[in-house]
Write a structure and sequence with these properties.
- This protein has 406 residues and is mostly helical.
- It folds into two domains: 9-194, Growth Hormone, Chain: A (Up-down Bundle); 208-405, MFS general substrate transporter like domains (Growth Hormone, Chain: A), CATH 1.20.1250.
- The protein contains 17 helices and no strands.
- Helix 1 runs parallel beside helix 7 (136-167).
- The chain is globular and about 55 Å long.
């Protein structure tokens, strides 16, 4: 890593801090939905399959709107895209507890509206804006900081939610989430794209269409996009269905909350280490190793006897690998194509992630209702780990000719 200053100007510092807060709130709220499933079932008559479908729709909308918010951020500024997304997020949570929230409205609230909100507030857009403020030598570390701070939300929110559901009930818990989302909306005004004078790249006249055309002709971009599908499948299967899975295996509900919190806690370290290693060694090797280790973690979790210790080991190990894929993945996109259209190009990669998330959420619930077990979902997750570990190896981490000749 080079010896140049990590923070080159005040704008970069403010953007980094604000993006961290935005992702902290957005991901923190998102991580808790699996803990509400039994309350939704008892009070709203929502089945596990319906809940899984809502999360699946949410993941799809998150992915489908990501490139749109990315294009808005690239053209008009990150703060405008993120603030608009927060409006949808707030409306989704509000209607979820205040109504209408049954039947098709449950899918609209938790699936459609929250999903659109996540498309602009969660990891991809804030992180892409941060990436525009930092040079190649420091970019993955800056991105990993955003990811790591967002993981604090993963750590804190399940603990608070587990307590609040018992103490206050699910309606009041979601009301508190709405307040935090309003705070995120205010902070989002400070996640601003760099001005022309602050930009770290030479100006170019490439259009959005040209950038997309260039990307889809690049084999490495296609492989990266395909591999990120697996990341989405993994984390949504785990985040959505592990709470019920561990209870079915005879463990208590607090163990489920502890697993989600451990995922958040250890993801902090995994994300930071991934960002640091991405400045030292090949990013594709990092990604291949992460996916292979995920498969090992899942195998041990489902085949070892059910116990709190084994559950906690899974939470810690899988948490270490949770979002550690993000800095390396986004770093490869920025390295190959530059940062001008990082929002929309990473948004496309993230769309693949969210398609995987849809299948992770929906198939987990479907397999459970069909067979009374999550076994087939876990077997599929293991097979996808092997696929992802292999598919990243042919990626070429080099800038396109356009950047080389500038």
């Amino acid at each position: 890593m080079s010896s140049e200053k990590f923070i080159n100007n005040k704008s970069a510092l403010i953007t980094l801090i604000a993006a961290c807060v935005v992702v902290l709130i957005s991901l923190g709220v998102r991580q808790t939905f699996g803990l509400f499933f039994m309350d939704f079932k008892n009070d709203l008559d929502i089945s596990i399959t319906q809940s899984g479908l809502a999360i699946g729709i949410q993941m799809l909308m998150w992915g489908l709107t990501g490139p749109i918010f990315g294009a808005v951020a690239d053209k008009y500024g990150g703060h405008k895209a993120i603030c608009l997304a927060f409006v949808f997020y707030i409306l989704g949570i509000y209607f979820l507890y205040a109504g209408p929230n049954t039947g098709i409205f449950f899918q609209i609230d938790l699936g459609l509206l929250v999903g659109i909100g996540l498309g602009g507030t969660a990891i991809s857009i804030p992180m892409s804006i941060v990436g525009k403020h930092f040079p190649l030598s420091n970019r993955t570390i800056a991105m990993s900081i955003v990811t790591a701070v967002g993981s604090l939300g993963y750590f804190i929110s399940p603990l608070y939610t587990s307590y609040s559901l018992i103490k206050n009930g699910w309606v009041d818990t979601l009301f508190v989430f709405t307040i935090f989302l309003f705070i995120g909306l205010l902070v989002a005004f400070f996640v601003r794209s760099p001005s022309a004078s602050q930009s770290i790249e030479k100006p170019n006249d490439q259009s959005t269409f040209d950038a997309l055309k260039e990307a889809f002709k690049n084999k490495s971009y296609i492989l990266l996009t395909s591999g990120f599908f697996v990341c989405g499948f993994h984390i949504t299967l785990v985040g959505t269905h592990v709470p019920k899975y561990v209870i079915d295996r005879g463990l208590e509900s607090w163990t489920a909350a502890a697993i989600l919190s451990l995922i958040g806690l250890f993801n902090i370290f995994g994300s930071l280490l991934s960002g640091y290693l991405s400045t030292k060694i090949s990013k594709k090797i990092i990604l291949s190793s992460i996916y292979a280790l995920r498969g090992v973690s899942i195998i041990l979790f489902i085949f070892l006897p059910a116990s709190n210790i084994n559950a906690f080991i899974f939470g810690a190990s899988f948490g270490f690998l949770w979002l550690s894929t993000v800095p390396a993945t986004s770093g490869i996109v920025a390295h190959i194509f530059g940062t001008k259209y990082l929002g929309v190009l990473y948004g496309i990669v993230f769309l693949s992630h969210q398609v995987g998330s849809f299948f992770g959420a929906f198939l987990g619930g479907l397999f459970y209702d069909l067979y009374g077990s999550y076994d087939y979902a876990w077997y599929l997750a293991i097979a996808l780990s092997i696929f992802a570990a292999i598919i990243h190896l042919p990626i070429k981490e080099e800038a396109v000719l356009r950047l080389k000749t500038e």
